[in-house]
Write the structure tokens for this entry.
Amino acid sequence: MTAVDVQATWWWPYLMIFVAGWLATDIWRWIGVLAAGRLHEESELLTWVRAVATALIASIIARLILFPDGPLGQTPLFLRVSAAVIGFACFKLSRNNLLFGVGAAEAVLIGGWLILM
Amino acid sequence: MGNRNPVHEHQQEDAAPVGWFHWFVAGVRAAFSLPTVILMGGFIGFASLAREADLSLLQVVLMTVFIWALPSIVVLTSALSTGVGLFAAAIAVALSSIRLMPMAMALMPVLRDGHRTPRWQLLAMSHFVAVTAWVFAMRTLPELPRPARVPYLAGFVCLVNTSVALVTAIAYLLVPQLPEIVAGALVMLTPVYFLLSMLSATRQVSDQLAMGFGLVLGPLFHLWAPGGDLLLSGIVGGSMAYGLARLLRRRRV
């Protein structure tokens, strides 16, 4: 069978899902478990690893707010940033109430969207 | 069980008198909350992407349950629709999921009960490491007694995983033509939720600094080095935060 024939079989997408999807993703999770070994929570190595993971997620957050895909990308940058900042302020004012903070950010975004667009 | 290490003997031996099932149910109940709704929003987006790529319902559900990381799922979806080979697709997906490694590594010492938690349980739980569950775990687990942490997180991810898969399937079948403002508001939920819940999950100076550096470096690296930007800002921002926190700690001592 040629490559094109193989890709036309019914099982090809499932092979892709299990090998290129599941294995290729879970391998990193397993490596993470094995690398953590018996390291202590307060160890220097794990403190650094946690800082790397935190900075990584922070950069995902910044990217999603500053360079979003789809319909959100049509909104002006200042609207998205002010929604996030006001959400943060309301979160702090409500003593770390997640629902209140997220709700405030969404209210600013939707309100601004209706007014501006 | 056996394998009692005397070092850990003092750790709240009587802290979980109610047992595994109680904590599992507590975790299930904790999943009726904001993170589940937010994740559903993200996967509804994937459902419409999958429709455009001509994936079947079974494939959509399998990808949701087995991959359980949206960026990898999106990369695989485009690989399936463009007819890329197995090896090339695996490389692309693996590159997009490297970030899960430091996350899984940082979670383990928080999750396990000293030497008592068998490694297979940790390997099984690691499958659910993705940003939403990770942030939830790092925020809530430290407040629980150690023996409660694995069952609590297991209950949480069981409900989140099945309900998100269900909603993804429903969204796929209905193909909702969402008004743009609703779709946009759904997309905005994710970063805002991550931002606020990360802020309440970061207790140490090094993590708070890492949060700040990541927010600033992420966009910069995205413009300078698109593709490798997440990993770069993670390693550079995280190392700067770690180094600076260490310097501050030494000063104080």
Remarks:
- Residues 1-16 of chain B have pLDDT under 50 and may be disordered.
- Chain B touches chain A through 99 residues (CB under 8 Å).
- DSSP finds twelve helices and no strands in chain B.
